[in-house]
Structures are given as structure tokens and as C-alpha cells.
Amino acid sequence: MTQCDILLEALRSGERLTVALALQKYGVYALSQRMGELKRMGHPVSSRTVKLPSGKYVSEYYWVGQLELNSVCSFELTT
Hints:
Layout: H1 3-12, H2 19-26, H3 31-40, E1 45-51, E2 57-63
Antiparallel strand pairs: 1-2
């Protein structure tokens, strides 16, 4: 199983990944590169910037449609 396969499975199951989490949980050092590979393969992966309790801002990657309702992102659907 490749790193992309492992990360894809995690994202599909609803996990949201940061560099620190991907390194700790899956041993993946280059998360942004793997996410870029998944995007180029056509997978609906996106990212947003989140603020950690420490005050630092990091990228968080997620499977499109998996953001929780209490997300800082908001949008309006129009028909």
C-alpha cells in the first residue's frame, strides 16, 4: 500500500489531516506533495487553514464534503 493509498483511505473515512497528524499517525513527511498527487489523480481533496491552540496556523486537508457543520467556512447554495 502506497502513502497515497493510506492517506486516501484516511480522508475517505472522514479524517482531516495536518502535517503533524500525517507524520505521527502514518509516517508521511511530505503531506502537501501527496495531497497534490491525489488531486492530480482526480480525487476531491481540498484544504483550509486552521488555527491551533498554540496560535499557529496550519493547513488541514479533507475529503470534499466532509467538513463539519461548525466549520469556520460558510457558503450559500443557490439554485
